[in-house]
Specification:
Number of strands of chain A: 17
Number of helices of chain A: 10
Strand order of the largest sheet of chain A: 16-15-14-13-7-12-11-8-17
Mean pLDDT of chain A: 96
Largest sheet of chain A: 9 strands, mixed
Radius of gyration of chain A: 21 Å
Shape of chain A: globular
Oligomer: homotetramer
Chain lengths: ~375, ~375, ~375, ~375
């Protein structure tokens, strides 16, 4: 049993989600793959810091994240700050030779992400970005179908990630609407999750052609205020893509998609089969095999089951719901296994950088109204 | 090409539906299997009679159905009257040696239906009851799956036919609520359709145990009236059944099923596979095969397609909607083929009698609160 | 009662479908809106011609379509030829002052369609293009939701029309793969149906940006042949659109979409509500209203019902399947009402031209890889 | 913050699930409602005992459950043994004045459960049975709809709980097939979950009429063995019920339901609305309101959201999956709140007894083939 000493930066909702996953992994997988020891938590908000300490059991707290990245008794720096701070904290942690677990996105620009990916490679430490959808047994299953050739040559990827959390135009401006804090709008927040799945299953995108819109260009400066501020980034992004493997992509996202709550939905069509998945129905994958008898062919509603990677950690039999948060537990297991046993993992900083450079190309195309090569 | 001379009794909605199907069959199947000639229509309502003549083209009209069953230039007596008159008209038609096409139910009592079935057998004429659901390519497909053994030994049939057309308690009493006109309530109107499918696919029911309820025991004597009349029969019927083949059945129907419009839905579970079908989604059958690879197993959404009996009469490729009314066209084709070519058909009066004797057993059980043998 | 004398050009599958609808309309709607008289049918294949005469009852046949467009006893020229001949026949019919009912598409080029639309306007005759999806009660309902403002400001239209009929690469070259016969590939065959719905509900598209692919660039010259011929047009087309009303569009179609049979599926998101419709589940529309109580909000599965335009012609109560072919009957009713009563209709040649000019812009964009204005 | 000292009896899968929930509750709800202290775990299998200690952190272990129920430093006895031992352990724990948290079912007979319920009431301690489905926000929502009158007068409850885990007839005999260990078959294992929901939402069942079947009457004594043993209890149970509130019930369960994995599915029809829920699609409830405009009425797919009891403990926004295991965390929260703050709870031993007496009545009816009163 190896103890992994955690230094957490950021004790908001995401920091708690990480901590909870760090604690649960041991219960599910046993101490063999590593046991989290909660050493230090940093948050500029001291009250939040103390609450985290009490609930989770950190040994000490600090309001300065630099204390975490330099602490000699920390093995893994866990970054759960607002997106705009990922870069600075991750860079310092890497510079100090720490293993780093950074919530998605890696940073808010392709340039920063590239720098982090290069630094991480150079330092030889574990560098993990929390694109939790790659841990979903459903997506792991789809990847297996694609990569085994069971779906034939892939012709087409169509996907959208729609939510309506910002549909209410009386909701005030937040950091999400400001580019220097968020990088971009729906694309970074939602689209990047879909891009992580696309990258995981389909590989690199070669070029993109995008169109975006801001449905609500102004929002109140504060709740109820009549003073308005500019929304700086897209409510809806839609783009066409050409994959390195020759497939056509049509990808979109919206944060004002009336009626959609967590509609990350995609379809992949190959010459021998197709799949469709919708995160609002997390427990089922639609799969079609051309090789079935013609009379009896149809999309199968395949319920998540123990033969799909990750599922059996939670349930002994198929068809039982697993939660969004369980993906975080699988993520921690992937991360801890990498630390303690050197097992490979997909979501390293290079992976995070690939997402961010695609994001950058999409944003550029939306401005130039022309095809843009990725990279 | 053989001409089949039609005498229609009853020119209401159902009479028109029959006529339309009688005319369309020729266009779809060609004149080889028989061409309808519209000779005479009888309806006590002369205006309805004339309207039918004008729209459909009958040569003559009458207000006395006896003119139809005795007419020497009529080959096929088509009965589309209210249910309570089926028996008398069919009996007279058979007595005159006519082929008979009777809308479901065959009659409103098992005794009458038995008499008709015996008379028909004795006369050797074509005797067809319009249980149109047996013509649905979906049900034909399910029957094939069951009878070929593809689903293994059948363990269980679960079905319901729910509508909410009588949910509104301000709707007045009609013939449907009066036993001497309707025989019974939801069971005869809706349940009998489900029983026809059950009979078609699963064969005979051996015994039943039923429970019924009248949700709205009184209704206005007329629209808007404050005078109330008694509802004589069930709004909801539910029963357990034991099939002759050993399977367990759970069957129900309701005419006050809030939210359900045409919810004839059933599931059959066999040891090698299962199917589920819902008439509100008429175009798709859910099928599960235990022999599929464990990881990839799931109910398949099989869209109606040309490999299912009857479908290709309407569409050259799968996945295109066919209509409830198209079942009537297939029914006419089945009937005409029997007349002109002697082909066998499932829905003869014996079949109709089997439905009605099951209905009778269910009604008796609902009264005695005990198991009742069918027959 | 007014008799409408029909001259049909083309007696293949589509010619029969038109004839069947022409005959059925009277049965459903009564003779008030016009009664079809089947005068003459033209087909270069004399055997097909004779079969049509026998099944449908045309008074005379001819192998030269010019006999139809010039016949003094023809009121309505019905064009059901292969697409490439629509232009020539329609032009001649219009020149002779005939009312014209042309199966979709209007022609195989925007220029030809424009000429026909202008000529029709000038002649003042009835000019109808058979985009039957506009007759679907579901689409009529969605249009009403959009145009009444019930969905608020429309932000986004996403749609695809996918089939897999040409997935099998051993299927030989047909006219569909040759541009001088088909104009284009999946876009003209499938995409145009989706465009007709988009045009009907959303109005004009202002500009487009497209991407296409040919998945199977060569096909056998004949079934089983080892000699191969070039496929000249797209298997998959996908494009982004900007609507005149400011909404964003993402539209696609594929004729090689594994597992999809009749998947014309679209979603419209407005600021107050959203709808989703899928032709494989023709009988239901998914509708979401933001005004519902927050706890209870969800997409409603609204079954087709008598309150939707056209439905009550077929069924007295909701939830009962109507068929793809029934749209053709409603189309004939729309057409006949225009002829006999001067009622307005949406699918005139101007409408057909709008579809074809959008098609032309999409094809150009797919070549130039840049945004193209429509017209 | 109050510490609750846990003594766990049984360290198998369920014991671990309980422990995990006991630990997580604090992270989600904070220490205010009580913090679990893992004092002692008992299991006759010493290796399992040690593993539990290591993963969960119990202070001491024992192979004799009597050490737990008598330990002065234990506040709450948590019973996660095989079903047949619940009675003995719970009785001893109650006798020693301990609070008791017993996994469902309360015991394997109505008589034992009655005794426990009476003893618990007499002792005045917290007595909780782990019917976790009552914690599902979906079921809490449905209960609220029913009890608020939003669905009107309830007419009908239809439900089934189907799994196919015992479909494979080569699976050997286990305790589940032996009545002295399991009490009964599918009814106790699966049906009791459905009964707990029925009891929670609909209240008491007055009488029942049941039918059962054993599909595979013999199973191997051990894996691969050719020696066979008798299966003593039902594979399928189906029954009709009359509720105290007058509603009709149709309830079933099967452990050999081909294709069904976790199909706990029920529908409730009231005079003003209906709901349908299916545990295989845990995240959505189908709800229909008769008060919606007629044209736009349809079952709404309401995704779990923060307005439903329990949901917001896990996610800040709707539409995100929560897991089967999360119900256990909510259960612990309910239990801890009862202990520390005296809040009321539904699933006490009286509730457990009501389930078990219904089970007893169903079993008797399946034997006598007649209606049996509950109690």
């Amino acid at each position: 049993m190896e103890e992994i000493r955690i230094g957490l930066v950021g004790s908001g909702w995401m920091g708690k989600a990480h901590s909870s996953a760090l604690a649960d992994a041991q219960m599910l997988f046993g101490p063999e793959c590593g046991v989290a020891k909660f050493v230090v938590v940093a948050d500029s908000n001291e009250a939040a810091d103390k609450a985290a300490q009490e609930k989770i059991g950190f040994e000490r707290i600090t309001t300065d994240w630099r204390d975490v990245v330099t602490a000699p008794d920390v093995d893994l720096v866990d970054i759960a700050t607002p997106n705009a701070f990922h870069y600075e904290v991750a860079k310092a942690a890497l510079a100090n030779g720490k293993n780093v677990y950074c919530e998605k996105p890696l940073s808010i620009s392709a340039a920063e992400s590239r720098e982090l990916a290069e630094l991480a490679a150079q330092k030889g430490v574990i560098n993990y970005v929390g694109f939790n959808n790659t841990m979903n047994p459903a997506n792991a299953y789809v990847r297996e179908l694609v990569q085994s050739g069971a779906l034939g040559k892939i012709m087409r990827f169509t996907g959208t990630y729609d939510q309506d959390q910002l549909l209410d135009e009386s909701l005030p401006i937040t950091w999400r609407h400001i580019n220097k804090l968020a990088g971009c709008g729906a694309l970074g927040d939602l689209g990047s999750h879909l891009l992580s799945i696309s990258q995981f299953i389909m590989g690199d995108i070669a070029k993109v052609n995008a169109m975006s819109t801001v449905v609500f260009p102004k929002r109140p400066k504060a709740p109820g205020s009549s003073e308005m501020a500019d929304v700086e980034n897209e409510d809806i992004m839609t783009f066409m893509a050409e994959y390195a493997n020759g497939a056509i992509g049509t990808i979109a996202c919206s944060r004002v998609a009336t009626g959609r709550k967590n509609y990350l939905c995609y379809e992949i069509q190959g010459t021998k089969g197709s799949v469709r998945y919708d995160l609002e129905r997390m427990g089922e994958v639609q799969v079609y095999f051309q090789s079935d008898d013609e009379r009896d062919r149809g999309f199968r509603t395949v319920l998540l089951n123990p033969q799909m990677k990750g599922y059996s950690a939670f349930q002994p039999a198929g068809g039982i719901s697993i939660a969004y948060n369980d993906m975080k537990i699988l993520e921690v297991h992937e991360l801890f296994s990498a630390i303690t046993q050197g097992t490979p993992y997909a979501c390293n900083f290079e992976f995070g950088y690939k997402i961010d450079r695609t994001v950058a190309a999409v944003l550029e195309s939306a401005k130039t109204h022309a095809w843009v090569d990725v990279e």
